[in-house]
Automatic annotation (TrEMBL):
It is found in: Gas vesicle. It comes from Nostoc parmelioides FACHB-3921. Its main location: other. Belongs to the gas vesicle GvpF/GvpL family. Signal peptide: none annotated. Keywords: Coiled coil, Gas vesicle. The keyword Transmembrane does not apply. It comes from the Bacteria. Residues 126-153 form a coiled coil. This is GvpL/GvpF family gas vesicle protein.
Length: 244
């Protein structure tokens, strides 16, 4: 028995029935046009969906397959959105936000979201920094085995930290300076792990992705083997489709 409608995303164009998609709980995905907005949905089999890896992937796959089928402009809806009926969609989403949704469609037309996450090995970076700052290394070595005052401990700690921070910032600056000119918009988010030093999404013209990825590769090479880059070139534009 259906628990309502599970919504995946909103598109500006109707999606023909020849595009067959499978969603959560292996349900067929349908499209519903309301007031010029096309909603992708399936019959919800649960009132609430657990944000498991499998469910999240199923949700994203529906949107990515629609994009692969040529429906590139879309507003992805957050995972787990179950509504009772279309009346709820009209009153809670379309009536209050219709103008903003249309503006977002204009902003996203012909553009795609790509993301760059940069990781480094903090221990290796610390060692490399010490090797290149002999004065700091000597200072630290001299202190080893000595009983230090709290002030001395703090001072050497701060020196090491500020030098490490400037190494990190020079990497981030290199990526930002060379990638920003290729993007219409950039949104930086907090790093998600300790080894992640940069986390940003870029909104770029759809056909410029290969230029962008080559640039990511070229900057990475400048830093030899110091970094690990996770570059995602095909994703629904979650970061840039926010209703304020």
């Amino acid at each position: 028995m259906s628990s309502g409608l599970y919504l995946y995303g909103i598109f500006p164009d109707p999606i023909p029935e020849t595009v067959t998609l499978q969603g959560l709980d292996s349900q067929l995905v349908y499209s519903q046009v309301i007031d010029g907005f096309t909603f992708l949905y399936s019959e919800a089999q649960q009132e609430k969906y657990l944000a498991s890896r499998r469910n999240l992937i199923s949700h994203e796959k529906v949107l990515e397959q629609a994009m692969h089928a040529g429906f590139r402009t879309l507003l992805p809806l957050r995972f787990g959105l179950v509504v009772k009926n279309w009346e709820t969609v009209v009153t809670q989403l379309l009536q209050p936000y219709k103008a903003q949704l249309r503006e977002l469609f204009q902003k996203l037309a012909g553009r795609r979201e790509v993301s760059v996450k940069i990781f480094w090995d903090s221990k290796a970076e610390l060692q490399a920094m010490m090797d290149s700052h002999q004065d700091l290394k000597q200072k630290r070595d001299q202190m080893e085995g000595k009983a230090l005052s709290m002030e001395e401990v703090i001072q050497i700690g701060q020196l090491i930290e500020s030098n490490l921070l400037s190494r990190k910032e020079s990497i981030i600056q290199a990526f930002f300076d060379e990638l920003k000119p290729l993007a219409d918009e950039v949104i930086e988010s907090d790093p998600m792990t300790e080894d992640m030093i940069y986390n940003a999404a870029f909104l770029i013209p759809w056909e410029n992705e290969s230029i962008f990825s080559q640039q990511v590769e070229a900057i990475d090479q400048k830093f030899d083997e110091r970094l690990r880059i996770r570059y995602n070139n095909f994703t629904a534009p979650y970061t840039f489709a926010q209703i304020s």
